[in-house]
Design goal:
This protein is an all-alpha fold and 103 residues long. It has one domain. The protein is built from three helices and no strands.
């Protein structure tokens, strides 16, 4: 009986580990995606500014919207956490014997 209780606790710990993994992957994905998006916007603004200058027009300035950049990172982290909640909650509700079958 103690073994079953220990297995149930192990399943709960794995659920927490799944959530932590989802949060870290979401954070890293958000940082990488935001950085790549910012780089693409910077490159596009340079191309547009060259074109506008060739036409004799005033170029545009690319701002640094901290709220948008922060929102991109936080949003991806929150979405990854929400996506990781379903498998973690399912694993924590399974009986220990069923949860450990695939391990």
């Amino acid at each position: 009986m103690q073994v079953v209780a220990e297995l149930e606790q192990e399943v709960r710990h794995r659920g927490v580990a799944n959530l932590l993994e989802a949060a870290v992957l979401g954070l890293l994905g958000g940082v990488l995606g935001t950085a790549l998006g910012w780089t693409a916007a910077l490159g596009m603004s340079r191309v547009v500014n060259r074109y506008l200058a060739a036409q004799g027009l005033v170029g545009v300035e690319l701002g640094f919207p901290a709220l948008v950049l922060t929102g991109g990172v936080l949003g991806s982290t929150i979405l990854a956490l929400l996506a990781g909640t379903l498998p973690a909650s399912r694993a924590s509700r399974l009986p220990a014997r069923e949860a450990m079958e695939g391990v």
